[in-house]
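FORM 12-B: Structure-to-Sequence Request
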């Protein structure tokens, strides 16, 4: 089965000092870097997704700022596909689906940020488009949220979204398991 690694929004604004810091961004990015390395080593398809905000009220991923740049630990190499998006769903308004079909991709391994937003939206869309989905849960990160006066830690936000995705939409496993499966 032909597969692709899709790295979503690993951008500087999500790291310490950025405009929208997420919890565990550095650890998650190290795991994404491990996946990227094995995909490069095996000459497999790699897609980098970069969010650029176009909404007037946006406060991060602003065009022409350092924060919009892809983090140096997973910087694209020449020839690796970069897709710019403006919505949480990486398929919306982009050529991602056409690109993946053009490469014969049937299975997508996802990692990146944020678990509760762009990872969730993109994985669900990929499933609806007929792709087999795998999420590297330790290579994803999110932030603390609150709703109705209830504070929800990033750990609980992440676990809730991974649990929901694993029920129907994706095989949610850690990076080590993905790498082991690729080595057999």
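FORM 12-B RESPONSE
SEQUENCE OUT:
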């Amino acid at each position: 089965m032909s597969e692709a690694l899709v790295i979503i929004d690993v951008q500087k604004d999500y790291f310490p000092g950025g405009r929208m810091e997420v919890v565990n961004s550095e650890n998650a990015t190290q795991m994404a870097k491990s996946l990227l390395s094995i995909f490069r080593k095996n000459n497999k398809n790699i897609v980098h997704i970069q969010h650029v905000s176009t909404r007037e009220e946006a406060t991060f991923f602003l065009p022409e700022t350092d924060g919009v740049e892809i983090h140096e630990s997973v910087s694209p190499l020449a020839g690796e596909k970069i897709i710019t998006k403006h919505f949480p769903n990486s398929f919306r308004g982009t050529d991602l689906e056409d690109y993946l079909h053009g490469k014969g991709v049937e299975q997508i391994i996802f990692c990146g940020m944020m678990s509760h937003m762009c990872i969730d939206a993109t994985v669900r869309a990929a499933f609806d488009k007929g792709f087999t989905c795998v999420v590297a849960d330790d290579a994803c990160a999110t932030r603390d949220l609150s709703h109705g006066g209830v504070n929800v830690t990033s750990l609980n936000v992440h676990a809730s979204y991974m649990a929901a995705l694993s029920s129907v939409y994706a095989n949610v496993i850690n990076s080590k398991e993905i790498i082991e499966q690729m080595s057999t």
